[in-house]
Write a structure and sequence with these properties.
It is a single chain. This protein has a single domain, classed as Regulatory factor, effector binding domain (Multidrug-efflux Transporter 1 Regulator Bmrr, Chain A), CATH 3.20.80. Helices cover 12% and strands 29% of the residues. The chain is built from one helix and six strands, in the order E-E-E-H-E-E-E. Strands 1, 2, 3, 4, 5 and 6 form a six-stranded antiparallel beta sheet that branches.
């Protein structure tokens, strides 16, 4: 966050919190399993990448989007519901692509009034 203003070609005010999980991460879930975490913004192009920052192109695909309201500290229960209840009862399976949250103008970190979008990669169940 301290270096966010160095990014001069962003397309909006939204912040992205992105996770790249290893295959079968949720099948064999352990709090000790490592995954990749990104803090990102959407940019028009990669012409001006500040030193020490990296680029990432998010692959397209089908996502299920959930609006989460509440403190970020309570978010684990929303993810648990999506992965353990909603997904098994749906016609979809989890796809092995990045998961991300969009933190827009209503995002307030640890506030009970905070809102964010949870984007879960899905594919039709085989």
């Amino acid at each position: 966050m301290q270096r966010r203003k160095e990014i001069i070609n962003n397309t909006g005010i939204e912040l992205y919190s992105m996770q790249i999980y290893p295959p079968l991460f949720f099948d064999n879930f352990s709090q000790d399993t490592e995954f990749e975490k990104w803090a990102a913004v959407e940019v028009k192009n990669f012409d001006s990448v500040p030193d020490g920052m990296e680029t990432f192109t998010l692959e397209g695909g089908l996502y299920s989007v959930f609006l989460y309201r509440g403190s970020s500290g309570d978010g684990a229960s929303a993810f648990r519901y999506i992965i353990k209840t909603w997904l098994p009862e749906s016609v979809y399976a989890l796809d092995n692509r990045p998961h991300f949250e969009i933190l827009g103008e209503r995002y307030r970190n640890d506030s009970a009034d905070s809102e964010e979008e949870l984007w879960i990669p899905i594919k039709p169940r085989a």
